[in-house]
Amino acid sequence: MIKLNGLHLLLTYQCTFECEHCFVWGSPWQSGTMTVADIRTILSQAKEAGSVEWIYFEGGEPFLYYQTMLSGINQAFELGFKVGVVTNSYWATSDEDALLWLTPLAGKIDDLTISSDLFHFSEKVSRQSKCVTKAAEQLNIPLGIISIEQPEIEALSFVGQIPSAASSIMFRGRAAEKLAPKVPHYPAEQFTTCPHENLADPGRVHVDPYGDLHICQGISLGNLFASDLKTIWAEFDPINHPIISALLDGGPFRLAKDNNIPTEGKYADACHFCFETRKLLRSQYPDTLKPDQMYAVTG
Length: 299
Hints:
Layout lengths: L5 E5 L25 H14 L4 E5 L7 H13 L3 E6 L7 H8 L8 E5 L11 H13 L3 E6 L17 E2 L6 H5 L7 E2 L16 E4 L4 E5 L2 E5 L5 H7 L8 H15 L7 E2 L2 H12 L18
Parallel strand pairs: 1-2, 1-8, 2-3, 3-4, 4-5, 5-6
Antiparallel strand pairs: 7-11, 8-9, 9-10
Helix pairs in contact: 1-2, 1-6, 3-4, 7-8
């Protein structure tokens, strides 16, 4: 049986930044934010599922809805989950301010991960990240820093959760549109695996403000507001899933071939090919390739 260990809540699609590398098209203009009641429902389902140990609050930028995030952290902590938060630390404008924002989280979160790179600030190690680091040390909050390199710089790729180290871009989401044209492209037939996600046994998934459960951004396994996490996970069958089965069998190239999508083009990486293919398949798989926010479709 596939064990689900972590549930990552995309608290909001809104963000203070509009980074070119963003998977979820975070932006000040995005829509979609969880309510306190939504979080309560999701956490209740996570507890009922039995195997979930970690709850993360992400975005977009979760600190934009600070009180809602704090309520969610308190709920998760009281339910016995390990709690993590991912933020761009826009709010840490001084040492004093960083301490003020983080003090209510002390003793309740087991991981604080901040993004600091040239996509977010004018320097890789921002002033804000330095303020957060100082406050986190003072409050004994475990801290990690995510840094994504610019597209022309070689860096390590990764599988699953983004590590706290300089990492390479995955060309999906906004990166497929904004950054893919800046790097070399390769023939489609090279991309016969999914190198960045363990689709057969993912361990962790994301849930967005609409309840969609993402095994990878834009590939939904079901909706937590229509069903429940335990049921969706029990019914998850990667071998027979219309999108995942093809990716497991032969990567984006197989997904395109199985659905009569042209494969003569060239792409920056497997994510780029997969994302562009999925965009073409959305009308064929409307219950799986969603929501619009993940594909830069706004109403």
